[in-house]
Amino acid sequence: MTNRRELNPDRDMHDWAAVELQKLRKSHGMSHRDVAAILEKDRTLISKIEAGESKLQEEDADKLDRVWDTGGRLGRIIRWAKSRHSSEWRDGRARSESRADQIRVWALGWIPVLAQTEDYIRARLADGGRDDADSTVRETLARQKVLDRKPRPLVWLLIDQNALEHPVGGAEVMRGQLARLLELAQSASWAVRIVGHGSGGHVGRDGSFELYRVGGADVAYTEALGPGRLVTDASEVVEYDICFRQIGDVAESKGASIALIKKIMEGYG
Questions:
Q1: Complete DSSP assignment for 134-151
Q2: Distance CA 53, CA 5 (A)
Q3: Among 7, 42, 108, 169, which is least packed, fewest CB within 10 Å?
Q4: Nearest to 158 by CA among 110, 206, 198, 118
């Protein structure tokens, strides 16, 4: 029998929600099955949430708050947890990335990390005044190695044209970077589409994000200055999925994207 980890509600707000859920369930004399019936979910999910193996979703928290008349206690905890910027989200992103069978990325300002060359990475860090280049380069290249596992994950990249035209590190670095993109765009496990200047004010202008499909379920990671935010709430992840599809609708076709990459590459001499 596997030992359950000890919940730490003082330091982890999802653990706090799990403890509160169990307390409220017992105070109302309900079983896991009873709570599952309210939420129209499987009984085992409630057990996993209380054990810290799964996270209570905002929609479900709000529903239980209404049924139990808690004054919004559970929903408030979950919204607070979702609003925090934490390095734990970055670690969660790394775990999802390493296990994902599908990876979808919308990149607004930079070439996506998974497609960056070492020279581009170093130039990006140097332009940003970073003094920990070697460790960050190693970390980034290690992230890219997850794509070499068998079977290879399928990767979709939607990239804003400005990311290709912004000269990071000079012409030679950019030629090498765009050559790498061309190579990926023509490989079987990658799809690379460029969102051109004529795409207008689409929803992707609000910021970059990534979607990871692990075991049939998606999680999203939104970019930010410092740690980004890992999104696990199913209803919110759906919104990112819709956004990715909408951005894809205004992206160039495979052939047109390859032609545009080559054209921009020629401009670097």
A1: HHHHHHHHHHHHGGGSSS
A2: 9
A3: 42
A4: 110
Contact call for residues 45 and 112 (beta carbons, < 8 A): no
Same domain (yes/no): 105, 227:
yes
Full residue range of the structural domain in which residue 239 is found: 87-266
CB 74 within 8 A of CB 23: no
**228 backbone dihedrals φ, ψ, rounded to 5°:** -80, -160
Claim to verify: residue 154 and residue 230 sit in the same structural domain: yes
Distance CA 143, CA 105 (A): 14
pLDDT tens per residue, range 26-63? 999 999 999 999 999 999 999 999 998 888 999 999 99
| pTM (two decimals) | 0.71
For 54, the token pair is 């799964």
- Tell me: do 143 and 36 sit in the same domain: no
